[in-house]
Amino acid sequence: MIVEINYLPQWIPEQMTPGTVFVLDKAGESGDEADPFWAVLACPSCATLGLITRKQMAGLIPVICGSELCSAQFHIHGDEIIPRRVC
Description:
Radius of gyration: 12 Å
Number of strands: 8
Shape: globular
Distance between the termini: 17 Å
Structural class: mainly beta
Number of domains: 1
Strand order of the largest sheet: 1-8-7-6
Helix content: under 10%
Number of helices: 1
Order of helices and strands: EEEEEHEEE
Mean pLDDT: 90
Oligomer: single chain
């Protein structure tokens, strides 16, 4: 299943549906200096909110849902969220 990313122009958590991204106002100012936090993403499977880094947003490394009940793993490619292939 491929999900199209929806971008939220302002922080309204109630409007974060699966696959919604809110780019942080001060993106890149917190987290690891080499790969700082860039945005908040609602998991495309369960809608759990989680911070993602610049490299995850660019599709260079996979995103893993942080929920205790969901184990979704996926990559972001442009405006699409694509499930990670299981080896």
